[in-house]
Every structure is written in structure tokens, then in C-alpha cells.
């Protein structure tokens, strides 16, 4: 009994099932605001709300853990407002779990895009994108903001470099600094009994550096572990190698979060490689461009072909837009098409559908792992996405072969 459960003060991890072929796992994670089932996708609610949908609608998708950006919450409306209202859960009317990023992302984007920031041992110095005022985000400040926000999972401030950077020396500096910053985050963390601090493994595409970083991070014994710095334009094959290298080193009884991942194929392959948690703005962002994520790929409902299509966004979908009975709206493609270019309602409807799709995909993946038919599920998933096997992406075929699933065989 005890061998598949590990508890830390604010988190309990229970390994429920393991795929007998791949490295996939199904597990239950109990956080301060209730249990969540892994593997899972976490939608990103930027401004304390998922653009266009209410907390109630988010709840109806089955979401029990969403991501908030520390920059948007902690720096605006700011710590005073959050203190007065009693944290982000109260501010948003969201009684389920929240994960916050470190807030460093904004600074790092400015480093890479605009050269308007610099990173020193002290922290990340950048100009506020709102009013141009100089800001310094340190590990201590990041944790203080996240303590005020009261999120169930908080992330360490790390030194992130795009994985494609050719500067090995700088990559090593960033990796080693991330370890030192984790120590500062742990020391600054005021609520380890109610908030879980996750470390972030860095090291770019260098597998040896990733191993070294993982070893250092694991020695700090945080309740959960993230693999960071990916989805920055690296080749998918490289991405898979990094994830597989890291998961092989991680303990069984801790959650493994790969940051910034959200394309359905990436999710399914990453689960096979042993990852449990993912987040990405893509499903909600793409909804605002009229795109519906479905098991047959992404459909742009703005296309004329849908103007007189009175079917649901996705046949058989259980989301509140698509389903007809049981309080569902029975929305048609024609309706979304008609509204897509002028009304925000279309974006709201597609957001609900897309978030549901992502969560439902992970629920199906989980069920197939529990019933030990995940390899068959992967085959069905790819067969739904592509007209023929010749279209399957090489990186996915290769990565899955590495964990015992050959999509090309019968
Ligand atoms: Zn739907």
C-alpha cells in the first residue's frame, strides 16, 4: 500500500497504474484545493480568467487545476490588492487548484526578443511592458508574490535560455544558476505546508547537462519536478530526447511537469515518455483565431465550407457547446462560422470546446493506461489525426519506437 503513495506536507502522490509497454503512468495528485487526476493538461488563465470563459464554464470542462501567470497577478493588480482580497482563488471565484509560474517569463521574453532585460546572479532586470519602469525580479520576490497569490503549486525562478542557443558556456551558467536560485526559493518560501514548490530542470538540449541538473534538483527534494526550457523552437526529436532522458532519472512517486507543451500529439507522445502534467496557451489562443481542436486535427471554422454545416463543432464531443442534451447548447459549426469574424461569442465557444478537448484527451489517455491498452490508444489517436501512416511525423514514430510502440507495424 505505502509503496505507491508518497506524501509531502501539501501534496499526496498516488501511482494508480503503469503502462506495461511505454513509460506512461496514471496517478492521483491531492493538492490543497482537492484531488486531480494525472496525466493532465492545465489551461492557462492569464488575467485571472481564461480569456472569454467564466470560472464556472472552466469548472464544467472538468478542469481542477489551471495555470495563472504570476506577472499578471502579482505585479498587477499587485500584492496589496491580492492581500486585501485573500489571494487568487478568492479574486477569481475559483475553488479548485492553481499553479503559478515564477513570473520570469516576461523578463526572459524581453531578453530574447528586445534585449531590454538582463540576467545577473541577483535576478532578472527588465522594463515593465506596461509602463516602462525598471523592475527586478529575484527568486525571493517571485516566491513572495506566489505566496501572496496562494497558488497550490508554485514554480521556482529559473534562468531560462532558448534551447537552440549555441552558447554552451551560457547554457551551463543558466543551468547552474537555476540550481542556486532553487536554494534561494526554498529559503524564501513561507508556506511549504500549504503551497508546493516545484523545481525546474534546465540544461537545453545537452543531455549530460540535463542529467547533471536533474541530480542537483532531485537532491533538493521538492514535492514535484518540472522539465523546463523546452518548446522554444527546438526540433521535436530533440525535445523527445530531453524528456525521455529526464523522466528516466526521476523518482516514480513525484509528479513530472513538462512546461509549455499543448499540441495533442506532443501530449500523447510525452505521456508515453513518462510525463504527467502539461500547460500551454495554444488551445485557448488558437480558439480566438477560429480554430477548433478535434481528433481529426485542427479545423478553422471560419472557412466557408462550415457556413452551412449544421453539425456540432466535433461530432460526439461532450463539451457544453457541442452536446445537445443535459444542459448542452448544441452549437453548430454554422453558428460559430457566422459569428467568427465579428463576435467574441465564437471565440468563447471554441475556447470551451478546445479546453474540453484537451482535458478529455488526457482523461481518455489515463483510462487507457489504467486498462493497460495505451499502445492501442496511441495507434487510434494517430489514425484519427492522419489519413495515412505515411503522413505520421518521423519524430513521433521514432520517440514511440523508443518506448516500445511501433506505429508503422500492423
Ligand atoms: Zn465540443
TrEMBL record:
Zn(2+) binds at residues 317, 319, 322, 353. Catalytic subunit of the queuine tRNA-ribosyltransferase (TGT) that catalyzes the base-exchange of a guanine (G) residue with queuine (Q) at position 34 (anticodon wobble position) in tRNAs with GU(N) anticodons (tRNA-Asp, -Asn, -His and -Tyr), resulting in the hypermodified nucleoside queuosine (7-(((4,5-cis-dihydroxy-2-cyclopenten-1-yl)amino)methyl)-7-deazaguanosine). Catalysis occurs through a double-displacement mechanism. The nucleophile active site attacks the C1' of nucleotide 34 to detach the guanine base from the RNA, forming a covalent enzyme-RNA intermediate. Its main location: cytoplasm. GO terms for cellular component: cytosol. One of its GO terms (molecular function) is metal ion binding. The keyword Calcium does not apply. The active site is at residues 101, 279. It catalyses: guanosine(34) in tRNA + queuine = queuosine(34) in tRNA + guanine. It comes from Tolypocladium paradoxum. HAMAP family: Q_tRNA_Tgt. This is Queuine tRNA-ribosyltransferase catalytic subunit 1. Heterodimer of a catalytic subunit and an accessory subunit. Residues 260-266, 284-288 are annotated as: RNA binding. Belongs to the queuine tRNA-ribosyltransferase family.
